[in-house]
Amino acid sequence: MKVDIYLTPYPFKDIPKKGKAVVAIDVLRSSTSTCAALINGAKGVIPSPGSVEAGEMRSKIGSDISLLAGEKDNVKIENFDLGNSPAEFTEDLVKNKLIIMTTSNGTAIFGMAHNAELIICGALVNISKVAEKVAGTNLDLAIVCAGQKGGFSIEDTICAGMLIHTLNVKHHIETELNDAGDLALLLYRTNKTTLVKVIQQGEHGRRLAYDGFAEDVAKATAVDSIPVLPVMAYGRLVVENL
After folding, report:
1. Contact by Cβ (8 Å): 228, 126
2. pLDDT category of residue 242 using cuts at 50, 70 and 90
3. Domains of the chain and any CATH numbers
4. Sign of CA dihedral 208, 129, 173, 120
5. How far apart are CA 47 and CA 58, in angstroms?
6. Considering the entire predicted model, what is its pTM?
7. Which residues pair with 3 in a beta bridge?
């Protein structure tokens, strides 16, 4: 399997996606929050490129069946129903609702990947589900890390490396990697016994803790704690049952 990792979304936006599987990773926090919403009964999560577009989408869908969720620089967007903390997406709030989500880093990837064969939302909390799905395809794979404000993020890269490792070790799939893929795999294998600590001490992890979201980091680093597979279908992320 040919696997290309993009350490930020910007190089990815200009490559052909047709016929590929794409895994979008934003560990801190939108991928984790998407998994939390779906496991608690949300009908779907609709990624939006910005708050204005999210508001327009809600007007079309209807406020009775949808919620606005999102953040800018870790802060909940004014007049939105939810921020971007996984703990906010409780069953009481999200069950049978469509969640329209916009975040600083992760949600834009889905618009870039719109014509791919398969689009998956990946995180540490659902890594085994993602690996199982990818292993069952015959598609080349692009793994796109959301990063942080256009730059590298250690948590997304480690997650990408863990996905490759799981494909290799658990599913016995040989992978042909680009240089970023080799780096991600090395980063994961070097730090796999101290995964939580490394992410907590990373730039984004420290910033979230400083802003009062240390618990979000703890939830986002709990491997396989939210075993759902969000896949893109008709403009929204929904649960696919393997």
Report:
1. yes
2. low
3. 2-234 (3.90.1560.10)
4. negative
5. 12
6. 0.96
7. 141, 177
Beta bridge partners of 5: 143
pLDDT digits (tens, 9 = 90+) for 95-142: 999 999 999 888 999 999 989 999 999 999 999 999 999 999 989 999
Q: Is the dihedral of CA 194, 32, 142, 53 positive or negative?
A: negative
Structure tokens at 89: 């997406």
**Encoded amino acid at 100, one letter:** I
- What single string gives the DSSP state of each residue in 180-239? HHHHHHHHHHHHGGGHHHHHHHSHHHHHHHHTT-HHHHHHHTSTTSS---EEEETTEEEE
The CA-based angle 103-106-109, given to 5 degrees, is 120
Asked if 112 contacts 24 with a C-beta cutoff of 8 angstroms, the reply is no
CA separation for the pair 23, 45 (Å, rounded): 16
Residues 55, 178: Cα–Cα separation, whole Å? 39
Q: What is the dihedral of CA 46, 2, 146, 126, to 10 degrees?
A: 60
pLDDT at 149 over 90: no
**What residue has token string 């970023």?**
180
Q: How far apart are CA 153 and CA 150, in angstroms?
A: 9
Stretch (H or E) spanning 64: none
Question: Which residues in 28-40 are b (16+ Cβ under 10 Å) and which e?
Answer: bbbbbbbbbbbbb
Strand order of the sheet with strand 236-239? Answer: 75-76, 66-72, 98-102, 44-47, 236-239, 230-233, 118-122, 20-25, 140-145, 2-6, 176-177
Q: What is the DSSP string of 32-51?
A: HHHHHHHHTT-SEEEE-SSH
